Amino acid sequence: MTLISKNIEQIRREGMKIAESRRQQEKDFEAQVQNMSKHNVGGLYDIRAIKKSNQFKEQQSFYNLQNSLDEMEDMLQANRLYKFSYETEDFIKKISGREADSYTIRETGKFISELINEIKAKYEVKE
Q1: Predicted confidence band at 1 (pLDDT cuts at 50, 70, 90)?
Q2: Helix (H) or strand (E) holding 110
Q3: Nearest in space to 91 (alpha carbons), one of 105, 106, 77
Q4: How far apart are CA 109 and CA 113, in angstroms?
Q5: Angle at which helices 102-126 and 65-78 pack, to 10 degrees?
Q6: Which residues make Cβ contacts (< 8 Å) with residue 71, sequence separation at least 6?
Q7: Is the pTM of this model over 0.70?
Q8: Is the CB of residue 77 less than 8 Å from the CB of residue 116?
Q9: CA angle, corner 70, sides to 69 and 75, nearest 5?
Q10: Neighbouring residues of 31: CB distance < 8 A, sequence distance ≥ 6
Q11: Residue 84 to residues 62, 68, 87, 103, 109: CA-CA distances in angstroms?
Q12: Neighbouring residues of 116: CB distance < 8 A, sequence distance ≥ 6
């Protein structure tokens, strides 16, 4: 059995060819991804366009639990009901039987706000 030995120059050339082919594959893949994202689908299913849209950002903000809790707390504080937020969260958990989500918090906040406005309207009429 004879071993064919390669000199350093041959090994270097092969390594350079392999590295160049890998770079070319990466370029081809990137070009393919860019080409696929540029086709016209009317903006409906282009994930990159959806993630960059303002509507997506607004939906992320709307469904954020912390944002909805902050909004409800702001509404309660504006009406001087400082300690009522904890009772409201407990009420939501009791009624829904599960942890509060942004939708139930917002709906409960709307209901409380309307109730407060009705009470204020009735109270102001009597004075």
Answers
A1: very low
A2: helix 102-126
A3: 105
A4: 6
A5: 10
A6: 106, 109
A7: no
A8: no
A9: 100
A10: none
A11: 22, 15, 5, 19, 11
A12: 79, 81
Angle of helix 54-62 relative to helix 65-78, nearest 10 degrees, comes to 70
Q: Which amino acid is at 95?
A: I
Give the pLDDT confidence of 21-53 residue by residue, as tens digits.
Answer: 999 999 998 888 777 766 665 545 666 676 777
DSSP string, 24-70: HHHHHHHHHHHHHHHS-STTSS-HHHHHHSHHHHHHHHHT-HHHHHH
